Amino acid sequence: MFAGLGIILIVAGAIITFAIEREAEGVDLRAIGYIMMAGGALALLVALIQGAGWMSARNTQFHNERHVSDDGRHVIEESQSK
Question: In total, how many domains does the chain have?
């Protein structure tokens, strides 16, 4: 989701910054375009960090063990990540 948002913001910011020749009173379109491109870059960075987190979580394996005492009254469960 953040990757798509980042690409859209970068493209829209570049269009506003470099392709529009008009001026608006009290509004700096060039600055708005640069801000949008920076926001898009930040969104792409967030998408990259999320993707790295999902990749590491997918490669994590868990090992569960259950130990029951001889009399059956006590149960110990252990969970370990490898």
Answer: 1
